[in-house]
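U., I forgot to send this yesterday:
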Amino acid sequence: MSGRLQMWQLLAVTCWMLLLGPVCGYNKRSITNPEATMNISQIISYWGYSHEKYDVVTNDGYILGIYRITHGRGCPRKRAFRPVVYLQHGLIASASDWICNLPNNSLAFLLADHGYDVWMGNSRGNTWSRKHVTLSPESSEYWAFSLDEMAKYDLPATINLIIEKTGQEQLYYVGHSQGTTIAFIAFSTNQELAKRIKIFFALAPVVTVKHTRSPMKKLTTLSKQAVKVLFGDKIFSPHTLLDQFIATKVCNRKIFRSMCSNFLFTLTGSDPQNLNMSRLDVYLSQSSAGTSVQNMLHWAQAVNSGQLQAYDWGNPDKNMMHFHQLTPPFYNITKMEVPTAIWSGGQDVVADIKDTEELLPKVANLIYYKNIPHYNHMDFYLGKDAPQEIYQDLIRMIEEHLKN
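Result:
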């Protein structure tokens, strides 16, 4: 809510600046990065990588768009076989997170150049996964999902398709934010799926959010009814023409870069020195891919309870129908035995360091942990120094695992 208000304020200021530009000297030409107007396939191709796109159909009928970077560019590392690495984005995001930086700074491209078979998922309801076998996205029924369904249906269907297409029985999993949450849920409740994971790399992990300082926390002060009055009962934060206009006509101008980056930092935590300001139009045009209002209500529930628990459908009968018990079950992540490496950020207002410190003792097979003091929530995939702070160690761990 506050984020959209800031966007409208930014638009109003921009209009005045553009109108007064010739008088005040603000008529300098803007430069738009080509990727700001591209879809995921186009971005991958633009940088010279080959790719494939697949539709995954879940057991409850959702159709998810997933992407595969089949080869590195130039002279990629040669392997007898190409180990699979799967990347899963965070809340209101998409697979574009992993490719919206320059190739030497984007994890998906770096992995491909190191000889890995790279797959990128999209959670149900986002821009690239907004289809269903029978339900229309115009219906409320389509949007009746949250973390529970992403963990129960999306991850198993996606990973099973990857195994079918590659012939490999196991893969490496990289998740950011909500991409870690659904993994913790899935790998602690579905042991067959957990056996498919060689190492779980958790970037800015989110299990409990009782210490979160994100502006989204304001939703927790509202009742479910009030949230639905404000946002409806379908999609939350889809990518809009307004978003695209601000990204490509406003934030690509030097005079507005500080204002645009401050908007991002309000949502994620501050680390201005680590953001490539010349690519703000790409970051903003590729962000805000949408999720369900119900998913946001689930996160609000998690903030209020301080627990990782299934979505409360609001009455015992509905809970009984979904969970075969009167109250939503708690997820016990101590049951997850997958080898896990974790990175956290000291300036992260979403995955607060206090929540991460409470998580660490619960991870049964923690093989690595690093806190990066200056990192905010988006540095894990956008930070200029992410290759040095994270990716080189992540790739090193995979290489060492392959030798054993």
